[in-house]
Amino acid sequence: MVFIIKKMSVPATPGFHDLDGAMDFVTTKGFGERNVTRVKKYGVGIYFYGDQGEWYVTTPPCKVLKASVNEFKDGEHVLRIACPSEWVETMTQQLKEVVRKAHPEMLQSGIPFEEVWKRCHKPKFEALEIRSKYKAKRSKVFDYVNMYNKDKEVTGSCSLCSGSAVQCSIRFVLSEQRHEDGDVVDTGIRCDFGAGIRVLKLSGNPAPIKRPWDWTSVDFDALSSPMYDTVRVNTGSMVVSSVEGRVVTVEPKVELKAAMRDFHARADAEDWDDTIVVHKSIEPGRVAVATVVPSRNKRHITWTATFLHTSHKKRRKMSPTAD
User: Fold this and answer.
1) In the chain, how long is the greatest CA-to-CA distance?
2) pTM for the full predicted model
3) What are phi and psi of 191, to 5 degrees?
4) Cα–Cα distance between 309 and 276 in angstroms, integer?
5) Which range marks the domain in which residue 102 is found?
6) Domain count, the chain
7) 133 occurs within a structural domain
8) What residue spans of the chain are helical by DSSP H?
9) Is-contact 41 105, C-beta < 8 A?
10) Per-residue pLDDT at 136
11) Are residues 77 and 131 in contact, defined by beta-carbon separation less than 8 angstroms?
12) 292, 170: one domain
C-alpha cells in the first residue's frame, strides 16, 4: 500500500482579495498575530476567525516535554510543551474573551457566560498538549506539520525531542457535546496546530563537521550550528607531541591546520595554538582522533574534546638488508 505525504494544509480562508495584508504570509509563514472578529460553527465545533483567516496564536519560546511530530504514529501529531507562567495568565484571559464572543452561538447561550466558562474544560497551559490528526478517514494522504528554523523550512529534516526549544502557532477549537439525556452539555477547548512550529534549538548534539571541514553553516559570533548551541568538529588523526595536565599539544595534518586557521580567522580570534583540552590521561607519542567543541574568551578559542580515541603510533617496517 502506498501513502502520499504532504505538508499540512491551511484551513479555508476568505477570498484572496478580501484579506487585509494578503501577502503577509510570505514573511510571517502564518505566524502573524490576528484578532478574532467572528466565529463559525461546524457540527459540535466552534472555530474562531479574524481578518486574515482562522485565528492563530504564537506561543513564546517553550521547552518541549514530549514530541511525536511528523513521525506518523498512532494517527496523530502530538507535542507537549511547558509554557511560561506569565504567558499562561495572559493567554487564559484572552481565550476567555474569545469564548465570550462565541457564547451567543453555543448550545448554552441561555446560561450566563461566567457559569459556562467555569464549567468549560480548558487547556493545561503549564504542560500544553497540541494534537492534530495527520490523516483524514479513508484517506491515503498524510499531512506534515510545517516546521521552520528562522527563514528556512526544515519540515521532515529534523526530529523534535524532549529538551528542545520551540515556538508554536496554535489554534483553539471550542466544542460542545450534549449528553443523551439532553440536560447536560460537556464544553471543552482543544488545542491544534496552526501555521506550524518554529524550531529554536534542538536538544542533543549536532553532527560533527568532518574533512574537508566546510564552515559555511557555522555562526561564528555564537560558535554554534543551525538549531544547536554548539559546533562539533572531527579532527581526524593527530600525533600527540606533549602533555601538560589536561592540555595536550598535537601535530595536526596540513589540511586540518589550514581549516582551523580559516575557522579562527572567520571568528576573529587568535590562531589555534595546536592544543586541545582532554578529560582523560594520554601519553605523548600516541595517535589521537577527537571530536572537539570550541569556547571563546575574548579573542582566544579553546577546543575541548568530547570524544577521544588514542592508539600507538604505527612503526615503520624495516626492510631486510643483505648480509
Assistant:
1) 114
2) 0.76
3) -115, 130
4) 13
5) 30-201
6) 2
7) yes
8) 25-28, 85-102, 113-119, 254-266
9) yes
10) 78
11) yes
12) no
- Written as one string, the DSSP assignment of 79-123 is EEEE--HHHHHHHHHHHHHHHHHHGGGSTTTTS-HHHHHHHSB--
How many residues can be counted in the chain?
Answer: 323
Q: Are 57 and 169 in contact (CB under 8 A)?
A: yes
**Chosen domain end from 178, 201, 224:** 201
List b or e across 257-288, with b for residues whose CB sees 16 or more CB atoms inside 10 angstroms: eebbeebbeebebeebebebebeeebeeebbb
* 45 band by pLDDT with thresholds 50, 70 and 90: very high
- For 112-130, the pLDDT digits (tens) are 999 999 999 999 999 999 9
Residue 9 lies in a domain: no
Q: Are 43 and 19 in contact (CB under 8 A)?
A: no
From CA 64, how far away is CA 83, in angstroms rounded? 9
Between strands 185-201 and 147-149, the pairing is parallel
Interatomic CA distance for residues 252 and 158, integer angstroms: 33
With cell 577527537, the residue in question is 290
Fill in the amino acid letter for 145: V
- Residue pair 250/284 in contact (Cβ under 8 Å)? The answer is no
Q: Contacts by 108-114 with C-beta closer than 8 Å and gap 24+? A: 108/176, 108/185, 108/187
Residues whose CB is less than 8 angstroms from the CB of residue 138 and which lie 6 or more positions away in sequence, other chains included: none
Q: Which SS3 state, helix, strand or coil, does residue 129 take?
A: strand
Cα(154)–Cα(69) distance, integer angstroms: 13
User: CA 259 → CA 20, 81, 270, 272, distances in Å?
Assistant: 50, 40, 14, 10
The rounded distance, in Å, linking the Cα atoms of 19 and 21 is 6
A 10 A CB-CB count for 9 gives 10
* 245 shares its domain with 130: no
More confident residue, 30 or 288: 288
Q: Tell whether 281 and 152 lie within a shared domain.
A: no
